[in-house]
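Support request from a user on the community tier.

User writes: "When I paste my structure tokens into the form, the page sometimes reloads and wipes my input. The last time it worked, I copied everything first. Here is what I submitted, just in case something in the input itself triggers the reload:"
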């Protein structure tokens, strides 16, 4: 049985004449945490959405657990979405619902489980993220970090094989960010899920990653373990992970073409 959870095979994305992702090749191994890094306009968020299935691929293919997700019908895509979990930047909770009701929502929409069973599952998921005692609170009554954890509990409601994280540390203070990182590590170990994380936060990336991928302007730059990335002599990698102001990334971003790209579309 293959140990590849996600295979990105020459995946390409265009908006008009602009190539946002250019022939990306990447394997995500089952059970690992893969971190996708890159600056604004690198294409990392677009790649994540293509893996999730919310952005279509214009060329190449993406296969998840051995099955292509390109060209799926609406019903097939809905079934695929039941097998994955997504933590959005904001947590994307419904403000009119309690945390428990938010976590229960996927179970009520996609299963025929009894209310008593759903209540038990909700408690288990909230316990996993340390929020069981806050089940009856509204999102407005909790902190930003707690909202992220509640969003993660909801993402896990249907026991997904793969979890996708979109900038999980965005907007959080360093201590809370570290707590979210520890939770990601814990869930991978406890649940055995595969995690794909998009971030530009270097501390977070090196804390959680089994492997890391760097993109720049839609092109694949480098992939490796945290130790391999730290030891890399590639000028792109060295500049990005060390936050240097001079290097090939700066030269690219000073071009008029790059500025136009950012003004036209967020990727």
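"...and here is what came back when it finally went through:"
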């Amino acid at each position: 049985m293959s140990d590849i959870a996600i295979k990105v095979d020459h995946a390409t994305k265009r908006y008009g004449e602009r190539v946002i992702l250019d022939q990306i090749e990447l394997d995500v191994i089952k059970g690992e945490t893969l971190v996708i890094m890159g600056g604004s306009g690198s294409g990392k968020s677009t790649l994540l959405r293509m893996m999730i299935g919310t952005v279509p691929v214009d060329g190449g293919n993406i296969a998840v657990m051995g099955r292509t997700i390109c060209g799926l019908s609406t019903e097939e895509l809905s079934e695929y979405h039941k097998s994955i979990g997504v933590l959005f930047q904001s947590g994307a909770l419904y403000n009119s619902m309690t945390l428990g009701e938010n976590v229960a929502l996927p179970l009520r929409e996609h299963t025929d489980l009894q209310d008593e069973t759903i209540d038990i599952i909700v408690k288990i998921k909230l316990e996993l993220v340390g929020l069981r005692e806050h089940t009856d609170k509204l999102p407005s009554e909790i902190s930003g970090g707690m909202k992220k954890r509640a969003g993660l509990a909801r993402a896990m409601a249907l026991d997904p094989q793969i979890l996708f994280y979109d900038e999980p540390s965005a907007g959080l203070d360093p201590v809370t960010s570290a707590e979210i990182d520890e939770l990601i590590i814990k869930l991978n170990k406890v649940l055995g899920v595969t995690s794909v994380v998009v971030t530009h936060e270097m501390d977070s990336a090196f804390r959680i990653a089994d492997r890391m991928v760097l993109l720049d302007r839609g092109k694949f730059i480098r992939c490796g373990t945290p130790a391999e990335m730290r030891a890399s002599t590639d000028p792109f990698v060295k500049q990005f992970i060390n936050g240097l102001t001079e290097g090939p990334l700066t030269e690219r971003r000073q071009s008029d073409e790059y500025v136009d790209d950012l003004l036209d579309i967020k990727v």
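Agent notes: The reload is a front-end session timeout and is unrelated to the input. The radius of gyration is 19 Å. Confidence is low (pLDDT under 50) at residues 262-266. Escalated to web team.
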